[in-house]
Amino acid sequence: MKPDINWIQIPSGYATIGSNEEDMKKAAEFWKDKLLNPTYGREKKFQKWLYKEFPSYQPYINEFFISDTVVSNELYQSYCDETGQTYPESLTNEELGGGKDHPAWGMDIEDAFSFCQWLSGKLGIDVSIPTEEEWEYAARGNTRNQYPWGDEFDPSYCNTHESNIEKTTPVRHYEKGRSLFGLYDMGGNVEEWVNTKYHVYEGGIEVVDDLTETLGNDYYILKGGSFARGGDLCRVARRHGKHPDPVFRFTGFRLVTRQKQHIKVGV
């Protein structure tokens, strides 16, 4: 099997990464009474978490190519069948969305790296997962959009707790929710691993929270939120991590390459 992946070309340019004070104020005001755990807003824990995104900065990003969706169950099953890897829960738990066109989830980042090594051999090019900067750039370019589709949250544009679906949806289901460059599900469905470990942005402040207390200061970042969590995690700038609570196990990934040879570029 030669995987048929729809690659999206992301042109070189300056990206908007993180949040400024205005962005954080807007997010805090909108979500303070809408969080799954309202005490996080009342006790200002949420407002503190937002400082992980501060300050905003604008790095120059070289051209790359990124898959329009996260890796699907169909593609991940091919990898497992060829390599003898254990099936993730997305392939065994039909109640939470087990269709072949649904996202593969339940993998740690080491599984994502292993998959990319296998796929690189299949395609004859270097394949990896995006960095945090690449992911944010693919989600909103150089805009200040809060969400991949624009500046306002809309549960009909994504699969989050507010959508009341309570399981995954097909990876190309939400046309209105596509990002600036045409990517699906950069908000909701499953959280996405990026190839960047948590660090304080230059000029920012260290934030101690449940993640740092549980994982320390050396964990890989997750982006985009999932069907099991609130839409606040859909914010492009939000920096999450894999908390050990089972409600955070819905983790998948999408692919990047920096080599145009032998790939199909689409929109």
From TrEMBL:
Top-level class of the enzyme under EC nomenclature: transferase
PANTHER family according to UniProt: FORMYLGLYCINE-GENERATING ENZYME, SULFATASE MODIFYING FACTOR 1, 2
Keywords assigned by UniProt, alphabetized: Kinase, Transferase
The UniProt record lists the keyword ATP-binding: no
InterPro entries assigned to the protein according to its UniProt record, in alphabetical order: CTDL_fold, Sulfatase_Mod_Factor_Kinase, SUMF_dom, SUMF_sf
EC nos: 2.7.11.1
Sulfatase-modifying factor enzyme-like domain location: 40-256
Originating species: Bacillus safensis
Gene3D superfamilies hit by this protein: paralog of FGE (formylglycine-generating enzyme)
The name this protein goes by in its record: Serine/threonine-protein kinase pkn1
GO molecular function ontology, one term from the record: formylglycine-generating oxidase activity
